[in-house]
Amino acid sequence: MIVADRKPLNEILEMVKDYKKILLVGCKGCVTVCNVGGAKEVGILGSILRLARAKEGNPLEVDEKTLERQCDPEYVNQIKDVVDEYDAIVSMACGVGPQFLSERYPQKRIYPAVNTTFFGGAVQHGVWAERCAGCGTCIIHYFDGLCPIARCSKSLLNGPCGGSAGGKCEVSKDIECIWDTIVRKKMEQGRLQDLLEIKPPKDWTTARDGGPRKSVREELII
Ligand code: SF4
Ligand code: SF4
Q1: N or C terminus: fewer CB in 10 A for the chain?
Q2: With 90 as the cut, is the pLDDT of residue 18 above it?
């Protein structure tokens, strides 16, 4: 899923400082799963914003709405009859949501309330970790299902750098050296020779380096 973190409150307050009435829009997709932008978090942020502004003696009216998804025009369309009632819309979806809102409601000021960080999953309750960098051509079968592009700090494809020590990355002792894990897994399974095959430089044109990407499925186009 897409993982995100809520922006600092001061940053959000600064965004809406000139407004009297805003619509706070959540999303029931990934940001609900990572506890940052679902109905519960929309309710919490709405209350905090109202209280903060009331304390300043400059009340802010905040209405709340959580859409099924903000990355789908069908759901973004559901607020079409009410958007004109607001000075601005604050989105609690990943970076896709505010952009779909901006494209659907071009006259409206749109603000992001979250920082979108990575594709990942929950490794323990309350902790999410990166697993994929969306490179567009998955090659993790060479590495026993582990991704050195997203999980090695240097995205190395041919073994660890010289900084790997004790299973940790030289960038931080808090970061697993995924190459250490890959090598150990190969050794345990008696397949270390797999790594003797040098991987050529990756073609990055399917990643962001090739510009904004599209996925077209002709059979689904109406
Ligand atoms: S190889 Fe590419 S698509 Fe596959 S997990 Fe890594 S970044 Fe994601
Ligand atoms: S120490 Fe490991 S994870 Fe860190 S950059 Fe080197 S190979 Fe990559």
Answers
A1: C
A2: yes
Residue 111 to residue 177: CA distance in whole angstroms:
37
* pLDDT higher than 90, residue 12: yes
CATH number of 2-117: 3.40.50.2300
Q: Please give the model's pTM, rounded to 2 decimal places.
A: 0.93
pLDDT digits (tens, 9 = 90+) for 180-207: 999 999 999 999 999 999 999 999 999 9
CA distance 76 to 82: 12
Q: Where are the domains of the chain?
A: 2-117, 134-201
* Closest residue to atom 3 of ligand 1, CA basis: 138
- Other beta carbons within 10 angstroms of residue 215's beta carbon come to 5
- Report the residue count for the chain: 222
Confidence of residue 171 (pLDDT cuts 50, 70, 90): very high
Q: How far is CA 52 from the centre of its chain?
A: 27
Ligand 2 pocket list (CB less than 6 A): 152-154, 156, 160-161, 163-164, 169-171, 177-179
Strands of the sheet containing 88-91, edge to edge, are 61-67, 21-27, 88-91, 109-112
Distances (CA, A) of 3 to 47, 59, 170, 174: 23, 32, 24, 19
Residue nearest to atom 7 of ligand 2 (CA): 160
Question: Which amino acid residue places its CA nearest to atom 2 of ligand 2?
Answer: 177
Extract the tokens encoding 64.
Answer: 């709340």
